[in-house]
Amino acid sequence: MAGSADAPPRTIALLLTVALLVACGSDDGGSSGSGDPTGAPPGTAITAELTVPPGTVLAGAPFAYAAEDDGPVAGTEALLLVTGDPVEAFADLVEQVRTAGLDPLTYHPDADAEPSTCLVADVTYPETAGERWPLGSDDIPGGDDPLSLECEAHAFGPSGYRLDLKLVVSEHSEPYLSFIRVTEVQDSPSSPLPDLEAEAPTPEGDSPVTAPEFPAELPGPGDTIGAPFTPSGEEHRLLDGYALAAPPVLPACVTGGLVAVVGGTEDQTTDEAVGTWVEHLGADSFAQVPAPDSDVTTTHDGVSLRRVVLSGPGAGTVTVTGVGGYVLLDRCND
163-204, pLDDT tens digit by residue? Predict the structure, then answer.
């Protein structure tokens, strides 16, 4: 089961998949900038329970990590780029959750309305204010004005297991947003909230939102990635020797930040890549780089994993997770 402390067969299969993705990654470490995203195709393992759904590709690799040096996998994060029908892609993931024996839930504080896993939104990101309608509602406006689709589902399992799925697809060209973020934790402190949650219905029907075209060019070394930090105006830039797998996406934190997948282009080891980005983001984010809240390294089936977390009062957090030569950057401004 997903919550087991031991490495079940599907977790071993996942780690072998990571090894293959790292070994077979593109020479530039990311997208070619040709207008088509590169990544692992549908059917590739994401977690021990999930695979890449139709209409998406996996950016980089599944970012598994441990809670202690040389310990078992404690969680996995992944970023999927949506290239096809977003409703079909998210529906496939919800059904995978059910097949795994878990009950998919969605936040639903309004007891007088039917729960909806997906909402159609009139929002200009990174702002979050705007009108929203349940998928399938007759009130969804027609016309040519760009809309967005937001889907959310999560599930709990034994021994603190938690799985979160979040989709954001925007028809606006700036910023490019067409992703599903997958977050799995084996020992989560959270628990169900019956008054605020309901069973997540599998979304169905034609999507009123079309996935945007992938950018023809991505930022290169020296270019700014992500929105400037508020209020200081701090900017983060792509380092030499790395390439973006996709444009940065929205973080989970309320006050903004960035989430990005980068790949090394100079055969960097996991330890080198994570250390370089911790130093870079730490120096940009904090007046004085703090000692890590955690710095955990482990190896599974020949795959090197490292995760470092930094935090500071009033400066938010920096989390850098490495698998092979790929790195997941998570800068939260909270």
Answer: 999 999 999 988 899 999 999 999 998 888 888 899 999 999
63-66/73-82 β-pairing: antiparallel
At 227, is the pLDDT very low, low, confident or very high (cuts 50, 70, 90)? low
- In the block, residue with structure tokens 């955690």: 294
What's the rounded Cα separation, in Å, for the pair 321 and 294? 11
d(CA 224, CA 227): 8
Interatomic CA distance for residues 219 and 41, integer angstroms: 24
Best CA proximity match to 76, nearest among 257, 308, 323: 323
| Beta bridge mates, 309 | 294, 319
Element (H, E) at 92: helix 86-99
**pTM score of the predicted model:** 0.88
In this structure, are strands 131-134 and 118-122 parallel, antiparallel, or unpaired?
Answer: antiparallel
Pairing verdict, β 56-58 and 118-122: unpaired
Q: What share of the chain is helix, strand, coil (3-state, %, to 5)?
A: 15, 35, 55
Cβ–Cβ < 8 Å for 225, 248: yes
Q: Kindly give the pairing relationship between strand 148-156 and strand 316-323.
A: unpaired
| Highest mean pLDDT of the ranges 87-101, 133-147, 208-222 | 87-101
DSSP 8-state symbol, 34: S
Can you give the residue ranges of every domain in the chain?
A: 9-199, 224-332
